[in-house]
Amino acid sequence: AAGVLTVILVEAVRGTGLVREDTAIGLVFPALFSIAVILITRFAGDVHLDTDAVLLGEIGLAPFRRLEFFGIDAGPRSLWTMLGILGLNAAFLVVFYKELKLSTFDASLSAALGFSPVLIHYGFMGVVSITAVGAFDSVGSVLVVAFMIVPPAAAYLLSDMLGRVIALSAGIGALSAVLGYWTARWLDASIAGAMAGAAGTIFLVVFLVAPERGLIALARRRARQRVEFARTMLTIHLLHHEGTPEAEKECRVDHLSEHLRWTSERADQIVRSAEKAGFVTVSYDRLQLTAEGRQEAQTAMVR
Hints:
The chain is mainly α. Among the domains are: 142-212, no CATH class; 216-302, Arc Repressor Mutant, subunit A, CATH 1.10.10. It is built from 15 helices and four strands. The protein has a two-stranded antiparallel ribbon with strand order 1-2. A two-stranded antiparallel sheet has the order 3-4. α5 (97-105) crosses α7 and α13 (253-259) packs across α14. The chain is elongated, with a radius of gyration of 30 Å. The two termini are 57 Å apart.
């Protein structure tokens, strides 16, 4: 109920149009947190609260909280709670997948087709709230926040397709849990903290080596774009001086450093790239445009 109330208040503040959504969240959350602190101080001042248990949780103690039906031990209470929440999430996703996808990425089209983006949003936020509150009881807030943010963020670096992102998020979350558990067992440390750390480590690896959006791929793409731009500039330079009296001087490889302000190593790199692309030919240190190179230069100048 508190989670749904938070969503309603955030949407109400944002709906005024006076503040943005992130500002609305920044207003509502501290206000509710302050109220919670006041209530705890007023009505539970004599109760000792273990900060580590509240923030990090203690999954190792979860098996000791048992669920019984008519005197029969059914297993850990947290297990059944989270299984029920898993079923709720899966059912909600399967039943409303199309509506969720449409209202999330194009609310205007969703409304035009007769769906209610606001109702779908509140339903989705309600399920998220139930999931968060149920998970807090078992694993603590740090792990809940980590697993709600890090696996989807890592998955988004790997794919643009929503279905694949959902599957990757679940897989990364499961892998983080397994790696975190064994790491905590090896180090004799907090299980929840180790799981959050494992999720962060996986995200860091994906952030570096993701095929399209990774830091390494981005650096390579930018380097390739710089070479392509310089190669195009070379073809424009050669086309500009083609057939002119100064062509003999301007079209020499050793003159590029002076005219285009490239180092000799950079000039050699660009010439090799242009020659490999079929834009120029090199004969006795003199550059000559090919038909493809001339077309490249003309196309670039038209842009």
